[in-house]
Amino acid sequence: MRVTLRRLAESISSRPFNVREASASLYPPVPLYRRLLRAHRYLPHEMRSLGDVYVKAEFHRHKQVTNPVHIMGFLTQWKMYLDELPNGPDGRSFTGKKLDPTVFEKMSNEQLGQLYEFMHATKELWKPVPEEDKS
């Protein structure tokens, strides 16, 4: 395997990647997709609409992928995202989190470009409300 492929296949979490543990905690693609869309129900409307469109597009793009390593990475990352979402109307609120610097370093130029575009597309949605407009 080439060095770049090996680097991309490395685990991005702080602990070593265990295939048995990951496959035991992963959902098959269709149930995971459904759980993600259900979990989005508890997000604010703007976040839900953006999240639903993104989830649908990503799963559609990866429908024809046959590389097992890529599939495991894809499902693992979406499962980690699902675990971060609120799980009910009385659940915790979703605040997001900062991007891990090691993940940022492993991104390709195309991925960095997509992240930059995403940042600018969402910047308008999440402008802080001035204090006098809150009442």
From TrEMBL:
Q: What name appears for this protein in its UniProt entry?
A: Succinate dehydrogenase assembly factor 3
Q: Which organism is it from?
A: Amanita thiersii Skay4041
Q: Which GO terms describe its cellular component?
A: mitochondrial intermembrane space; mitochondrial matrix
Query: Is Mitochondrion a UniProt keyword of this protein?
Result: yes
Recite the UniProt keywords alphabetically. Answer: Chaperone, Mitochondrion, Transit peptide
| InterPro entries, sorted | SDHAF3/Sdh7
Q: Where in the cell is it found?
A: Mitochondrion matrix
**An annotated GO BP:** succinate metabolic process
Q: What does this protein do?
A: Plays an essential role in the assembly of succinate dehydrogenase (SDH), an enzyme complex (also referred to as respiratory complex II) that is a component of both the tricarboxylic acid (TCA) cycle and the mitochondrial electron transport chain, and which couples the oxidation of succinate to fumarate with the reduction of ubiquinone (coenzyme Q) to ubiquinol. Promotes maturation of the iron-sulfur protein subunit of the SDH catalytic dimer, protecting it from the deleterious effects of oxidants. May act together with SDHAF1.
Pfam families membership: Complex1_LYR_2
Which family does the record assign?
Belongs to the complex I LYR family. SDHAF3 subfamily.
Q: How does it assemble?
A: Interacts with the iron-sulfur protein subunit within the SDH catalytic dimer.
